[in-house]
Amino acid sequence: MSLYQDHLNTLHAKAADFLASEQLDALVLTSGIPHFYYDDDIEIPHKMPASLRHWIPENIGAHQYLVITKDARTLYSHRPKDFWLKVKESFGPWSDAFTLEPHESLEGLFAALNNATQTQKTIWLGPDVPDEFAHNIATQTQKMAIDSWRLIKTEFEIECMKLASIRAASAHVAVRESLSEYISEFQMNLDYLDVTGLRESELPYGNIIAYNDHGSILHYQDLDQTPPAVLNSFLIDAGAVYDGYIADITRTHPGEDADPFFITLLKRMRAIKLALIDECKAGVSYMDIHRYALKLIGELLIEHQFIVNIELADAVDKGIVRVFFPHGIGHLLGLNTHDTPSIAKSLKESNETFKTLRLTQSLQNNMVLTIEPGIYFNDTLITQALENPEIAPHLNLERINPMMSYGGIRDEDNIVICDDQPRNLTAEAFAEIGAPNF
């Protein structure tokens, strides 16, 4: 627990500085209340917000309220006597670092919260702030300041993300080995869950498990229950969680019916990913990494004549490369899959080149982010491009059409920014489980 205690000390020091600068006595973080599906009494699986998970590495449920002052941390916790649902009798070892105030009734809990904060200048942050405290909700500027504490990761956070990566990598290897059994996307997803030991509701995002042309749909979720008659390709974008921290890994594999040319493209895309990772150092603009991705992918598309009769710079500037690579090169990673969205974009970029980029800041030491270049042969994108007279003449359908049944290629690693060579958590995880070239 020493790494966790160091993490907590660092976090509390930031909170104390924030309270002093804002002339506040306390910050209250909420976990939210139970929510139910529309017109139903079935509860939606609860997920604590990142603002609270930053302090507490366990999903402790709804109606939890953490009061932070400059020198104390008190958790006001709803712990009802319930015969319908199991209520945790105790929390993990992390709870030794907090003062715990359990309450059986919500009335008693809110009365205690009111007594503790009524004479203090307090702000509240999180979902479902009780009505009686709603006048003290944090402003957007205050929220962004608190979110910024998650931008640079502590050693504890990086270690959790490494362990999440090992959990995800183990499942990636297992389901890749089962590909020869010719199982459905649906069964592949079940196998992945089995290896991670996670419920579907505990995953950081819905697994993307896509055969053939399904891989062209960036967030494909259908999970066919029947194996395809022909297996050209298999794209899996699936992660895992450890103590609230996320791994987000994507791999694309050739199917048993794959053309050798597709395997050539796969190898080139993995080489492009590694070249991009090599450029990720403290002080480098993430926008420059995205520009470099467009250049490398554009070179590949021109070399193999998917794009024709145009220079590389013009293919990038006119948006032709984005027909095949429509998303950003990656995003921040942490307690959320797309972490700290309120501060990730330091400027509003009107240029279409960066419209889909989720991070526009320069990189800093101990940021954790993804690098995920891709090329896609997506029917919607190709059809729209063919309707554009500036783009259509440069698309070579004789080359593109045979690849439509392969869907796409995406390869994604999670990295920690350093002064020099970044630390690749994904590569470390695969090496640790004996699959270094996966």
Automatic annotation (TrEMBL):
InterPro entries found in the cross-reference section: Creatin/AminoP/Spt16_N (IPR029149), Creatinase/aminopeptidase-like (IPR036005), PepQ_N (IPR048819), Pept_M24 (IPR000994), X-Pro_dipept-like (IPR052433)
Q: Which domain of life is it from?
A: Bacteria
Which Pfam families does UniProt cross-reference here? Answer: PepQ_N, Peptidase_M24
Residues covered by the Xaa-Pro dipeptidase N-terminal domain: 2-133
Keyword annotations from UniProtKB, A to Z: Hydrolase, Manganese, Metal-binding, Metalloprotease, Protease
- Names of the cofactor(s): Mn(2+)
Output the Gene Ontology terms for molecular function: aminopeptidase activity; metal ion binding; metallopeptidase activity
- Provide a GO CC annotation, any one: cytosol
Gene Ontology BP terms:
proteolysis
- Is Hydrolase set as a keyword in this record? yes
Peptidase M24 domain location: 159-417
Q: Which NCBIfam families match?
A: PRK13607.1
Q: What is this protein called?
A: Xaa-Pro dipeptidase
